[in-house]
Amino acid sequence: MILFSSFRLLGAESKPASAADYSNQGNSFYNAADYSKAESYFKKALELQDLSHPDDPIEAATVLNNLAAVYRAQAAWAKAEPLYDQSVKMLEKYGGTEHPTLVGPLIGLALLRYDQGSYDEAERIDRRALKIQERVMEAPVKTAEVKNTLAAILFAQGRFPEAESLADTIMSLQPNRPGELDSQLAHAWNLRGRIALMNSRYAEAERCFNESVTRFEKTAGPDHPSTAAGWNNLAKVRAELHDWKAAEALYGKSIASLKRHYGPVHPSIAAGLTNLATVYKSQKHFDQAKKLYLESLDIDKHFAGPKSPQAARDYNNLGLIAWDKHHTEEAERYLRQALRLDEETIGSSHPDTGIVCANLADLYRRTRRFVEAEPLYRRAIEIRERDFGSEDQILGDLLAGYTEVLRSNKQYGEAAQAELHATRIRVRRAILSEKRQDG
């Protein structure tokens, strides 16, 4: 998140003398991901403020917002939230509920709720920020920041077309100065890459991620959490292409960078460990993979709580590892826990919920528990077709499993329809593959 500030920037050797000076030094350290020093300077800036009757409410609210951003970056959510709230209330009191400076702390609050997995509340807060920002002319950077935040929230909710549409509007913004939008464009390219990856468009995804990393390296530096996130996403592409060596190297590079900034325990590190574990799992290094999944679960439970989408993801992965090791009862227990958490936190129709339904349905099918498998397959198919269309390859795999279940349950008419749909997808994919080879 870009911090909003009404102050001039200081050189690296300047000696702070006022709250504004301390705040600007804090901004410099924040942007360099040196959160310890940033926190120190923002605290010093606050010590020089009378928060009950500030001489400059906007300046005081800015410092509160910036300190909150430092805490949010470190996943210290309990420290960040009251500061964001205080910043918003101060700006509302002195500037009104539609003042443009509210946009910064509202974005921060929205991102905080996003980090915590409260996507509906995050969307509500960010849409308020967007409504305010849309009245402001000649501010493309802040407009892009609000839209990038909303796009990330929509993506997390599985609303991929809406997210992609927002990314397109960010790409069309015109900067006031050359390069001022580079950081926000890096986020937009990253989102487009994630959407391409979700749709198995690997060459497009890699191109988008490379563009994102190049811009982050230019604006934030080669050893910055944003750049590390780009390496993580490039590793995902390599993993999908079964280039395990490259994927492992990129994940390792990303995790090492994140640990330098956050220490060994942080939600971003948990996500990286999960991705690296998946590489090990794909190579049948199950014990190594399980160790990393458990480490990720511990981190996610610490920050997001035991009842969170993050914990659900970890339980799903542990269930798949247990299944690979032929520990059927353990696999079922983990997957049922993942499904329960997803239904409670992100809802019964979210794409991630559909993935867990598919995994649990597959387990029941393979253990010949066809009656239990049928409704889970039906849910997974409905969600997958809604989000990825009727010709999706994974949808075809789900339909093939569903066909077997329906036949075993003596529902021959429905089985024939499902098989026909699966065959149509398979034939279409084969034709497209031949055309690509001929081209």
Protein model, in words:
Residues 1-14 have low confidence and may be disordered. The chain has 439 residues and is mainly alpha-helical. It has helices at 19-31, 35-47, 57-73, 77-95, 103-115, 119-133, 140-156, 160-171, 182-198, 202-219, 225-240, 244-262, 267-282, 286-303, 309-324, 328-345, 351-366, 370-388, 393-408, 412-438. The longest helix has 27 residues, at 412-438. Helix 9 packs antiparallel against helix 10 (202-219) and helix 15 packs antiparallel against helix 16 (328-345). The protein has a domain at 1-136: Serine Threonine Protein Phosphatase 5, Tetratricopeptide repeat (Alpha Horseshoe). 76% of the residues lie in helices and 0% in strands.
Can you tag this structure with a few keywords?
single chain, 439 residues, mainly alpha, Serine Threonine Protein Phosphatase 5, Tetratricopeptide repeat, 20 helices, elongated, disordered N terminus
What series of H and E elements makes up the topology?
Answer: HHHHHHHHHHHHHHHHHHHH
Beta content comes to under 5%
Gap between N and C termini: 43 Å
Specify Rg, calculated over alpha carbons. Answer: 24 Å
Q: How many DSSP-defined strands? A: 0
- Kindly state the percentage of residues in helix: over 70%
CATH class of the domain at 1-136, please?
Answer: Mainly Alpha
Task: Give the second-level CATH assignment, the architecture of the domain at 1-136.
Answer: Alpha Horseshoe
Tally of DSSP helical segments:
20
**How does the major sheet shape up?**
none
Give the CA-based shape.
Answer: elongated
Low-pLDDT ranges: 1-14
- Average pLDDT: 91
The CATH homology group name of the domain at 1-136? Tetratricopeptide repeat domain
Oligomeric state, counting identical vs distinct chains:
single chain
CATH fold title of the domain at 1-136: Serine Threonine Protein Phosphatase 5, Tetratricopeptide repeat
The SS-based structural class is mainly alpha
